[in-house]
Amino acid sequence: MDGTTLEAIRTALRGPVIAPQDPEYAEARKVYNAMIDRRPAAVVPCRDAADVMAAVNFLRDNGLDVAVRGGGHSGPGLAVIDDAVTIDLSPMSGVRVDPAARTAQVAGGSLLGDLDHAAHAFGLGVPAGIVSTTGVGGLTLGGGHGHLTRKYGLTVDSLTSADVVLADGSFVTASEEQHPDLFWALRGGGGNFGVVTSFTFRLHPVDTVGLGITLYPLDKIGEVLRWYRDFLPQAPDDLNGFFAELVVPPAPPFPEEIHGQRMCGVVWCWTGDLARTEEALAPDSRPAAPAFHFTAPMPYPMVQSMFDGLMPTGLQWYWRGDFFDRITDEAIEVHAKYANLIPTGLSTMHLYPIDGAAHRVDPGATAWGYRDAVWSGIVGGIDPDPENAGAIKEWCVDYWSELHPQSMGGGYVNFMGADESQDRVRATYRDQYERLTAVKKTYDPDNLFRANQNITPAA
Ligand code: FAD
Fold first, then answer.
1. C-alpha to C-alpha distances, 26 to 31, 75, 119, 429, nearest whole angstrom
2. How many CB atoms lie within 10 A of CB 459?
3. What is the mean pLDDT of the chain?
4. Ligand 1: residues within 6 Å at CB?
5. Number of domains in the chain
6. Taking 80 as the threshold, does the pLDDT of residue 283 lie above it?
7. What is the pTM of this model?
8. Is the domain of 228 the same as that of 325?
9. Confidence of residue 100 (pLDDT cuts 50, 70, 90)
10. Which of 32, 134, 145, 149 to mutate to test the pocket of ligand 1 (most atoms within 8 A of CB)?
């Protein structure tokens, strides 16, 4: 950005403008994934909708590229783009719970931990992701799934309205009654339609839940996956269990003798009667003797943050995902092959259940394109050492490529990698894509908001 434009933006905006020559710049351009090393033209922290409107107006009128930062957790690092200006929502963090109405108003830059903490005081919560440092913004706009999905649906299924700053700088509230087409598109269509300054969610009863982890040696992966694919879909909605391949971390609750071993298993969350946790998580039908089985009653926010310590900011990440309506025998062979090749201690593969309550929503009601999918899968190559960036990416891409023919063809938009094609965006939205391009044309005809998995405006 030249000096004149920088001077003009500093004059136009109330808050700070962090430019490359400023000492705060190094920190401001960092995102969660350390594989992303981009140099934005500037970062503009915003405190309220007025700041966002001023920023959008200035950037659009001056022909500057725009990126938007919620929690900064996207795998492809979409919150910072070379030479673009980042509208940074991180100062806009805050949650107001209305316990009588059972709603929460959540500022656009809040993190999941903010929401879980605020709602838990009232024995309430929203179904969302499993790491508390993830942004409410990006997660919700992509759909959002986690430990409560089978019980209460996707995160977007609890969204009742959103305040949005549009590309023309105007401010609207989108809901079933107001701008219903925009509200439809926001529920899965990502950050394509504007900057959401506030989300309002319907809250659900959730307090202490039954947490469980059951691990098996990798030579049992075939038996475990065959059992899991039959067991989970017929289990009550109160039982959520995501399948995982992992290297057992050297930390509690895992006993030392299994530290560092490649294993597979299920991470459970039980929202039913706590006295029946063990019965629900360790059914007689289970496929083999586990190498490790742990259950404990836990406050919901503790479950939501239990992986935070393993996954601090600053690791190298490369991921790809796909949706699955079944786990075929062919897929199980691919899982067995690549689980044995997990390249680093944190790399993993998860299958998150997205059936139960998420299946009971009309497929056309939101922009989420796969109400018939039973699992949202992700292969994640993760490691602290930049030297291993090539190895984790190669494992991820090879694994994903061999598994992809067993998928439904598209994957969760929030699990798309840094270098996936426009065809993959179409595959994510499937038959919702054309409608999304029409809504995009109405609300962002010049594609100002394109630092995302981009939906291009209809011709
Ligand atoms: P950002 O990088 O800030 O934003 C991502 C995209 O959303 C960008 O295009 C950005 O412009 C846009 N955006 C963000 N906020 C706004 C806003 N307020 N208005 C308009 N646009 C906005 N997903 C799940 O569903 N379930 C999980 O359990 C889960 N676990 C995860 C765990 C980890 C450790 C990580 C890194 C990710 C996980 N995810 C999960 C994926 C997560 O949903 C995406 O990475 C999501 O994009 C993160 O949102 P963010 O706001 O933190 O990211």
1. 11, 19, 34, 36
2. 5
3. 97
4. 32, 68-75, 78-79, 89, 108, 129-131, 134-135, 137-139, 141-142, 144-146, 190-191, 195-196, 311, 414, 451-452
5. 3
6. no
7. 0.97
8. yes
9. very high
10. 134
